[in-house]
Amino acid sequence: MTHRFRMSLLAAGSAAVLALAACSSSGGKQTEDEPANAGAATTPRMTIAFITHSGPGDTFWDLVRKGAEDAAKKDNVDLQYQADPDGPGQANLVQSAVDKKVDGIAVTLAKPDAMKANVTKAVQAGVPVVALNGGIDAWQSMGVLNYFGQDERIAGRAAGQKLTTEGAKKALCVIHEQGNVGLDARCDGAKETFPNIEKIYVTGTDMPGVQAAITSKLQQDKAIDRVLTLGAPFAMASVQSVKDAASQAKISTFDTNKELVGAIKSGQVTWAVDQQPYLQGYLAVDSLWLYKTNGNTIGGGQATLTGPAFIDSGNVSAVEQYANNGKR
Amino acid sequence: MTTITELAARDDRVASRPFLARLLSRPEVGSLVAAVVIFLLFMAVAEPFRNVANIGTILYGASTIGIMAVPVALLMIGGEFDLSAGVAVTTAGLSGSLLAWNFGLNVWVGVLFSLVLAVAIGAFNGWLLLRTGLPSFLVTLGTFFILQGVNLGVTRLATGNVASAGINDMSGFSSAQAVFGSEVSIGPVNLKITVLYWILLTVVGAYVLLRTRIGNWIFAVGGDAAAARAVGVPVRATKVGLFMAAGFCAWLSGMHLLFQFNTVQSGEGVGKEFIFIIAAVIGGCLLTGGYGSVVGASIGALIFGMTQLGINYAGWNPDWFRTFLGVMLLLATIVNLYVKRRADLR
Question: For the segment A166-185, what is each residue's pLDDT rounded down to a tens digit?
Fold first, then answer.
């Protein structure tokens, strides 16, 4: 190969790459909106540990974390976000926060039995603790100040109620995490108000597997006219499943994200049960700030419910702009 | 049904025809028998399983495993594991999506970038393995954790979320979707394009393994690397090449993930590496290397797909899903072992 030939080959190659690298005319990062910044408090800087049971890479927890971060920015709080899906591991994070002498702890109590000892210890050590998202039956007995979240069973009942009023015949409840009591509670709650529900377990970390499993179930049982998923990404996967199975089933879901809001708008998904995760994160941090600076508690000893609310074609346009900022 | 009568007929004549005995001692025959047994079981108990139109669903479930089971089987025959194969698929999907989205490029630029990255990760695995002399189990376990963290960390840095942003409104998406996420209808059966890739990879893999010099090298380095080197087999190139093949297939799977679902969740893929290895083992690959079959691994993937979806088709209580799956897989492996032993005795 001659030098000149090699040079021309290189030139041709880079020209091809440049031509291909032509910018996308639509979509991408530039078209995203920058969220507005709110004013900040002038109270002394405090440290709050925010400890959840989220697994890595779950879009739901993005929203919770964003709420917590926004509140932290506004309240002049140094937010330390930590997560461990394993119960004892999460309990250990609470202990280490107490060891670090943080000013407050916000914690999810999805696995209350594993968390109880260390949370109680934190309360006894004088660290204010608030709970969010999980553990609605357990937080009071641990001496926790406030609880922000949704009662999963109530949310399930509301979803079942809506299915009944819409005249659905049979629903498939898709559980994407085996052994998560919150997810089972949603299906069980829905069963109370809409008895003809069948559960199916899928592996949430394997999207093609989720899609194939839902497809096969729809092919097996033609009577199913509703798919009820328990997380937004799984609703999106079942859109494809319904198409593949040539099923007439409509899709509804718990929890939202940006793609799902778009899918409700385009009619692929009928409605979503929204528990306002952003609000849970925001209120958890803000309530600790209120408690430290003003001694306030929220809820009068009762849980503060952030859901269930419904997002459907009627109100989706209003929600859409917030979803685009990644906050709904 | 023809397969059964054929098999029964073969069984009678095994003793007098030594070449059939040789056929039966092929590594994939055990898995073939297991596949037929599981196929018949679900044919008997699950009505939708008998519906021809549903073949597409079963094959799709099998193909997403099979595309990776082929290179993983080749690697195992070559004496190595790749525990990073599952998350490498997610890495491939994420990297393509994030590059295109972040800089507003044509998605095909992301597709090419992802290809380079995925193959480079494979090459890195192979290079590190040979450089350090550590077992591949440890090296790829390291890569597994690194990639898992990178998937999450980079996604959050780029998008502020834990899933890649939707890219279906960007230039080149529809053409890329046609290549990686489309489907064709053959009569009543809808076949996803992954099924075609899977079959193609199986044919190419089996041909390379059984009919080319490279295939001999793969068996040789897996059987005894030192002896292989002594007779002039390029051990390093073979092993690095095998890891790069795994990287390539991870890219193919990752592109399907991206263009089928538009967004990729950064936590996906964890645990799938074992499913690929299980498929290869059911298909007759030895954990020690030097023995195995590409066709067998694909049959292993098919067994997995049939079992996974057959349980749904049969409408069995989903609480026991994993248990059924485990029992099915154990049975498949035992049948595999039994057939192989019987065949070896003859």
Answer: 999 999 999 988 767 788 89
CATH of B26-345, one of 3.90.1570, 1.10.3470, 3.90.1720, 2.40.10: 1.10.3470
CB contact under 8 A, B267 and A203: no
Alpha-carbon distance B300 to A215, whole Å?
Answer: 21
Per CATH, is A46-150+276-297 categorized as 3.40.50.2300?
yes
Cα torsion B173, B179, B181, B186: sign? positive
* Chain B residues lying within 8 Å of A27, measured CB to CB: 101, 104, 166-170
Q: Which pLDDT score, from 0 to 100, does residue A15 have?
A: 55
Beta bridge pairs of residue A274 = A309
Question: What's residue A181's pLDDT?
Answer: 76
Min Cα distance B270 → chain A (Å) is: 7
Determine the residue of chain A that is closest to B264 in CA distance.
Answer: A207
What's the CA gap between B73 and B283, in Å, rounded?
A: 9
Q: Which residue is associated with the tokens 């005319």?
A: A25
Q: What is the ipTM of this complex?
A: 0.71
Q: Which residues of B touch A199 (CB under 8 A)?
A: 318
Domain boundaries, chain B: 26-345
Domain A152-274 CATH superfamily: Response regulator (3.40.50.2300)
